[in-house]
Amino acid sequence: MAGAPSQSQGMTGDGFVEQHRASLIQNVREVLAIADRMLEKKMIYPETYSKIRSATTTQDQMRELYTALDSGGPVVKAEFSKILQDMNPYLVQNLTSDCCADEEIVELRIKYKESVRCEYITVQEYNSLTGESVQLDDRYTKLLIIQKHRKQKEREEELRSRGNSHQEVMNKRDSDMFMSTNVEKLFDPDQNGVVHKTVILQGQAGIGKSFTTQKIMSDWASGKIYSDFEYIFHIKCQQLNHISKNISVVDLILYNSQDLKPAVAQVLSCPEKILFIIDGFDELKFSLDVPQYSLCHDPHGQNTPQVTLSSLIRKDILSEAFLLITTRSTTLDKLTKVLKQPRYTEILGFSEEGMKEYFKNFFQNEQQALCAFNNVKKNEIVFTACFIPGVCWIVCTMLREKMDENTDIKQALNTTTTIFVYFVYTLLEHHCKSGSLPVQDILQRLGVLAESGIREQQVLFEEKQIKNTFSDPSQAPSSFLNKIILKKGISNKTVFSFMHLSFQEFFAAFSYIMCDEQESEKKVSELLRESEDKGHLLSTVQFLFGLSNQETQDFINEKYNRSISPAVQSQLEGWIKERLKKATEQNQKADLMAMLHCLYEIHDEDFVRGALESLTNIFLSHYLLKRTDCAVLSYCLQAWGDIERLDLNTCLLKPECLEVLIPGLHKCKDLK
């Protein structure tokens, strides 16, 4: 490089060690290997060597070594410099070369950061038109990240809990017990003082992995985080799939910015100041199962994308560089086989505070955000599903559209089912890898799997169940199914789950419209009959009513060429009339509310009036009504028309529940 002094100028023993004391303490990683050599040459005492080995971090090891260097004088320091030169020439070159301070290189680094900042400061949304974008900070919200694998019981607790109970579970996860952390601390020393140079960031589809990587790039370029990294390079695995020629690690660097070409030598000279973000590992179409002898050690070496990426991830190239790898759970086991001492982290989604912050960022109006959030909180299932940022975005988009139209947002989230239909469509369009199975087949098989689990009250599925549903397990869509590895005795076992029990119930209901008309009628008849004795099936029945909503049917028919037959709709109408009559006559209040929830999901006033026409009174005294129940009851009362008597005595209604009920209460002649 131009302007670089000779090695003899920089390597002056005593002067070098003193001049670069702070940098050497922070950046030398081969301390024990250096200490071995110095002990062998009798340059340090055994007692000093023991102290170095006992230190928990490389920085503390270097401080112990510096104590020996200071007492040993120029000869010992010169020997240390010589050993360091042999072991880490990149570091020595960086510290002794004027190139690091070269104005051109500094200028190129600044220019690169500015280009990164400009590229990542905005994002496109799923529904963005050409040229449209939003500020990243208006969408990104802090996510709950933990570093601990959960036990089977804890997994089931997360999958089954709903509403406030689900948020209580999430709050428990956001604790020291589950080693919760945040993006800024991903590369901090762990509880043992070890700095992990490879971090896995795992999470299900739509949970915010890619948004997190964009936020890291933006905040680093803006000087907010990771100031120790001179360069961060974003490698998108989806793009690697389209590269057919041989490439090198240098090529991967230059894909981020060709302007860095003159600075490549300087970039490579300090690998410990580089962070590679390998985004979407699960999207790779090639395997990293590369023989050790085929791996490359030269960052300039031209190889297939498979060999080059494998060499980088396995640390055969730039072993001192840092890696952040995002992936879904389906490829976690493959990834861990090729990594050296990775730190495991997992994004769980939003806590309740995170949801509130997301709404605030999205609406940019505190009053609108609070109104929207409170409206969502009334719907227990939607509120639960909003722990997934992708669901949050759909909900906020729908609510803002209603606000822009000056429509009462209390009616904006017409049904829970609508939200789930839109979310599934979004994942299929933007997060589902193209495979050998058509979309209709994927939905049908997911439905069959979900239904079998619902009937058995099962939320964790064995591998053999996945193989029975998808003859080739690789066809099981990771967009909807999470792969979980649990400890089992002295080994591990693999299970699968849907994102949450509510998504499993939705897919179970969806299975009834994915089969032919005759089979659909038969299966719906069985479901309705069994639900009378098995209350856990009622949530699936409610989703089935939601899928019967005309607008939802039109959307499904347009996208998937499927719809609910008139015969099935007739079955639903006859069944709910009978159940309402029975629940009223036998004073079964919980059953009555479940039926009203079904009517709310179909959200068809003519259907609701027809189902309720034979009823004159509703008795819910002493029944504890949730906010969701009040919203459902209010809608049914308004659609119903005049009702003779409504008994809500001793229901312990809170003010927010009364506020939701008021529009429907005006329809009651006798209110208690």
Number of DSSP helices? 33
As residue ranges, the low-confidence spans are: 1-12
Strand order of the largest sheet: 3-8-4-7-6-5
End-to-end Cα distance, whole Å, is: 88 Å
Radius of gyration: 30 Å
Fraction in beta strands: 5-15%
Percent of residues in helices comes to: 40-55%
> What best-fitting shape do the alpha-carbon axes yield?
elongated
The main sheet comes to:
6 strands, mixed
Structural class comes to: alpha/beta
Mean pLDDT: 88
Number of strands: 14
Structural features, described:
The structure is a single chain. With 672 residues, the protein is an alpha/beta fold. The strands form four sheets. It has a six-stranded mixed beta sheet with strand order 3-8-4-7-6-5. Helix 32 (627-640) links the parallel strand 12 and strand 13 (643-647). The longest helix is centred in the last third of the chain and has 20 residues, at 566-585. The protein is elongated. 43% of the residues are buried. The model is unreliable at 1-12 (pLDDT under 50).
Question: Which structural traits does this protein have?
Answer:
54% helix; three-stranded antiparallel β-sheet; 672 residues; 10% strand; disordered N terminus; six-stranded mixed β-sheet; 33 helices; alpha/beta; 14 strands
